[in-house]
Protein 1
Amino acid sequence: MRPTDFPLYVSDLDGTLLRNDTSLSQYSRDTLNALLDQGLLFTVASARSIATMRHVLADLPLRLPVVEFNGSFVSDLASGQHYLIHDLHRDILSELWQQIADAGYTPFISTYDGTADRLYYRDITNDGMAWYLRNRQLHQDPRLRYLADLQSGLDDQVVCLTVIGPGPELEKLDEAINQRHAERIQTHCYENQYSPGWHWLTIHDARATKEQGILSLKRMQGLEDRRLVVFGDQVNDLDMFEMADEALAVANAIPALKERATGIIDTNEEDGVARYISAHWNGTPK
C-alpha cells in the first residue's frame, strides 16, 4: 500500500485506548510509537481536554491535531494551539446558567479566554464534584481557577458546562435543557467510570461533536479522501461511528455502540486498539 493510501485511524481514549486505570499500556505505547515512525496516520477524539490528554499520551508523537472536548476544539497536542473552537452561543448561556441554578447545581465552566484555556469552579457541593477538583489539583491542571463570581466566566468563549450529581436528577435536568435548546446544544449524561455513583452532564455547542471535529481535521490536513477507521466504547462515539468507513467497538463497549460497529475488537484492558492497528494498518493482516 502506498503511503498516500494509508487510512486515518481515530481512537477514543477512556475505555477504549486507555486501560481502566487511565493509563496507556507499555504495549500500546511502544506499538503506536513504532507505527507512527513508519507513517501511521493516527490521532484521538475524546471528551478530555488537552490538559488531561497530555499526561496519558506523553512521549506519543502525534503529528495530527487532536479532537478534544467532544469536538469543541481541534488542537495541537504539543503546543495546545486551537485550530478550531466551537463555543456555546452567548445568547443562551444565561438561560443555561439559570436552568442549572434552578436545579440546585453549580457547574464547572470550561473556556478559552483569548490567551489560554480555563476551568472555573466555585461551590463544591457533593462528593462527585470534590473528586473532580482533587483529580485536577493532583494533576496540576493549569486551567484550574477558583472564581468567586463564577457567572463572570461566561464572558469567555465557553466550550463546556459540566454539572455533576446523582444520575436521576441530572437526567431530568438534561431533558429540561434539551426541551428548550435541543437545536443549539449537544449534551451527554453518563456515569463517571472513575467516580462510581456520580453522573456528569456536559453541555456543548451543537457543532461540538467528534464527527464534526474529525471532518474539520480531515479538511485541514488534506485527508478528505482517506478511509476513516475509528474506535470507541461510549454513547459520545456514535456520531463518528456513523461517519466512518470502518467502526470498531472494543468488547467492553456499550450495546448501542456495538450495534453500530462494523466489528468488535479486544477490550481496552487487552490493548484492542493497538493490536488491531498493528495487524491491519498497512492493509495486510500479520
Protein 2
Amino acid sequence: MPYIPERVRESEVTRELLHAGVRRAHQGKVRDTFELRSADHLLVVASDRISIFDFVLDALVEGKGEVLTKLVVFWLTTLFKNVPNHLVAHGKDIDEFLPKHIRNYAELHQRAIVVQKQEMRKIEAIVRGYLTGSGWKDYQATGAVCGIELPAGLHDGSKLPEPIFTPSTKSEDGHDVNISEAEAIAMIGQTEFKRIQQASLADYRMAYEYALPQGIIIADTKFEFGAVLADEVLTPDSSRFWDTTDYALAKAKKQSPVGYDKQPVRDAGKKASIGRQIVDISKLDPKKQADRELAASWVVPEYLLQDCIGRCRKIQHRLTQPAYAAS
C-alpha cells in the first residue's frame, strides 16, 4: 500500500461510503476501490490526491478526481466502446449496485465507476510515440528503451519512427522500473505478453489518431490489463498530452513541451523548498519512511495546484467536446 498523508487520506465521499458500511478493498495513490454486494464488481472512486515520483503529496487538486473519471468514461464509452474493458456502470447508473442509503449522491456519481473485477497482470503496459520522461533517461544512458534500440541523435521530445511498447514493473510503494520484453515474458508469460503488447499498441494508435486532429499529441500513455483493458485510461495521470503548436516550438529547441498534466508540479518537486533546505523529491526513495515523510512535508504552492486542475480541465474539454458534439 502506498503511504498517504493523513490529511488527504479520506474525502467526504470515502467517509460516506465507509460510514454506510461499504468495505474498502484497496487504497491506491489516487483511487480508492470498494467492494460491492456482487462479488464480481468493484466501485472505483477517484480522489483529488496528487502524486509525483511515486510519492503522494500532502495536497489536493480540487476537482481532479471528477476530471479523471469523466475522461475514463469518455474513452471507454466512445472510442473504445468496442474494445473489451472493465466498465460496467457510471454516473447515476452506479446506484443499482450501491446500498440504498448511499444512492442519489451527486458527488459520488461524478467520481466513481462500477467495474468488473479483474485479476490484474503484473506489468504496466506503456506505449511511447515520443521520447521523453524515463524513456529519454534510458536512451541517454544506453541508446535504447526497454532493450529496444533507437536511432542515434534523438532529443527529448523526438517523435519515434513507430510507437514502441515499453513495459515496466508495477510497484505499490516504490518506483516502477522499465523492463525488457524478456523480463516481462518471465513475469506474465509469452501469450499474455503478446496479447497486452498488441492491444496496447492498437489502443494507443486509435487514441493518437483521434486526438491529433484536435491539435493534441498523445506522447505516451500507460495502460493496465486484467483479462480486459482496466484501471484508468488516457488521463492526465497516466498520459502525456501535448499541444501541437507547443510541440513545434519546443521541437525547434530540441526540447519537449509542457503538457496538460502535472508536469509543472513534478518540475517544482525537483527543487522543493522544505524547511530550510531545497529537496529533489525525484531522488528520494518511497520505500523509506523518512523520505516519505520528507516528501509529504512539502507545502505545494497553491498556484501550482490551480495550474494543474486548469490543465486537466482544458485537456478534458479539448478531447471530449468534438466526440460529444458529433454524437
Protein 3
Amino acid sequence: MSIDWDRLAERIAGFQNFVLTSHIRPDCDALGSELGMAGILRQLGKNVTIVNGHPTPPGLSFLDPHESIQILGEHVRSDELKPECIIILDTSAWAQLGPMGDVLRRSKGAKLVIDHHVGEDELGAEFFKDTSSEATGSLVTRFAQHLKVPITKAMATALYAAVATDTGWFRFASTTSDTYRVIADLVEAGASPSAIYGDLYERDTLGRVRLRGRILSRTESELDGTLMHTYVLKEDFSETGALPSDTEDAINLTLAISGTKVALIFIEQLKGGFKISFRSRCHVDCNQLARSFGGGGHRAAAGAFLEGNLATVREAVLAATRKAMQS
C-alpha cells in the first residue's frame, strides 16, 4: 500500500498550527517519527507542538535532548491544545492513544494519521498508511525526501533509531533493500549508528539487568520448545530498581532461544492489568492474535492489554496461542 505523498503535502499546506502525538508507552519509532515530522513541519514554517500521553522513557531521552516533547497533564493541559491539525504517528487505534484520545475526540481541527500498522479504528481522520513499511520512521523519511526538505542531524538521529529498533537492528523479515537505502540517507544526513547503538544498548542500569534476570528465570517452554512465555509483575520494578520502560524488547530474550517459533511476555502494569507482547517467526499471525484481545500490530509482532490477574490473563492468551500454533 503506497502513500499519496502529494495528497499529504496538500493537506499540510492548508494549516499553520499542528499538534503531533503517538501511542502510549512511546518507543523509538513513535518518538523518532514525531521528532522527524516536527523537523519537516518547522522547516516549512509551521508551528508545531509534540504532546504525548505518556512520558519519554529515560533510556530514550537522548532522542530529545532539548525536551521538546510535552506530556499531557504535566506540561500542558488539554484545554490549551487548539491546533488546526493533529497528526497521529505510529498508531491507528484509540486504545493506544491513552489520554490523548480525549484531546482527539474534542478537537475541531483536522486529523491525519501516518502509520505502518495493520488495522485501524475510526478516528475521524484521513489515513496515510503503508502496512508494508518496516517503520513509521521510514515513512517520515520518505515524506521529507518527497518534499525535498533537508534532514538535519537531529532528525536523522531520531529517524535512524526509529527504523533500526523497529527492524530489530535490521534482523526482522520486514527489512528490505529499501530499508538500507533509507538508512544510508540518514547516515549521510548525520546519524551515527555507533553512537545511537551505544545510547540504546550500552547504558543498562543495574536494575534493568536484574529485571532481565527475573524475566529469563521465569521463561517456560511448551509445544516441544516452539512456544516460549514469561512474565513481569509490578513489584519486580521496586524490588530490582528497574523501570517499566526496561521491559522494552525484553521479549526478544525469549525469542532468541533456539527452536522458538512464538514468544509471549506478560507485563503487569502499575495501574493493574497486563500488557501482552506477541512475537512470531512462523505461520502464526500476531496481529490476528492480538486483535482477538483488543490489540493489534503486525504479523510478526503485536501487542494487547487485558484486565485481570496473571493466571486468568495468561491462560486465556496461551490457550488462543496454542490453538493458533496447532492449526
Protein 4
Amino acid sequence: MNIIMAGVDYRSASLELREKVGFNKNQIRDILAKINKEACVSGVVLISTCNRTEAYISLSHCEEADPVEIFCNAANLDDDMKKCFYVKKGEDLAVYLFELACGIHSMIFGEDQILTQVKEAMLIAIEEGASDAALNTLFRCAITCAKKVKTQLVLNAVSPSVAGQSVQLVSEYIEKKAGCKALVIGNGAVGRKVCEELIAKGCEVHITTRTHNNKSIIVPTGCKVIPYHDRESLIPYVDILISATSSPHQTVTIDMIDRCANKPKYIIDLAVPRDIDPEVGKINGILYYNIDSLGETARKDNSKEISAMKSLIAEHIENFNKWYAQRKRLMAVK
C-alpha cells in the first residue's frame, strides 16, 4: 500500500509546539493544494485537531518519499518542528488510522470527537479534490469500523469526550456550591457539549455567541446567551470559566482576570491554539487546566477495551486489504 503519513500529537510535541500546526479550515485547504501539486502525490488528507495534526499522503509515481519533508514544506514549518514528527507507512498506517478513529490513540481514551474529526478531514479533502480512491476508501473503512466499535462496545470508566472530562473535574464542586454559575466561551460542538453536561449537573450556564440574533445559532436547552464581546463583564460573577473556540487569538487574557474583583474558581481551556493566557494558572485560588493537563487526569488501564477494539479493527482491516488487492490487480491489467 503506497500511502505514507507524517504526524505530530500530544505525545511527540508540547502544547506550545502543537499550536504551530493547529490549522483552521482555510489553512488546511491551502496545505492540501500545495501537497497535491507534488509530482509524486496522488492524494492527501489532513487531520488537524487540538491533540494532533497528521498528513496522509497517497503516492503515485514513486515508491519512496519523505512525508515530513512534504508536509513541512507545504505548511512552512521550520527544522526544529520536524524533530517532533512520527512517520507511518503501509499496513502499519492503516491499522493506526483505524485505531485513531476508534479513540485508542486519543489523550482521553475512547473519546468520540475524533471520529467526527476524521470524517471532517476526509470531507474537506474530497471537497477540495485533494483525495484519491485509495485514501477515500481507507478513511471510509476506518469510519465504518469506529462506528461499529462505538455501537458494540461499552468503554467503561472513560469520559467520551474532552467536554465530559472537563465537567467531570468540576462536578463535585458544582454539587457542593449552591447556585454554581459557569460561563462557556464558544458555541461550537465542544462548547455546546460542555454546556449540556454542566446543565445536567445543575449548574447555571451562560454561553457566548458572536451573532446573537442569528436564528441558525444552536443554543443548548437551558443556556443563557451572552454576546461574545460582553464576556468580560460576566467573568467576576461565575465560578467556572471554560473556553473552547477556534479563534487564533486569546479569548481570555491575564489582564481580564486580574481586573476581576471576584475570580472564577476553575478556569479551563479546551482550545488549541490556547484561548486563555496560561499565566492565569499562577493566580492564587484559581484551578487552571488546559488540553494537556486534562489528559493527565484521564489515564487508566484500558487494556481490556483495547483488546476488544482491536479484534473488530482486524475484521475491517481485512476488508480494506481485499479491496486494495483487487484494485491493484485491476490497475495492473490496465
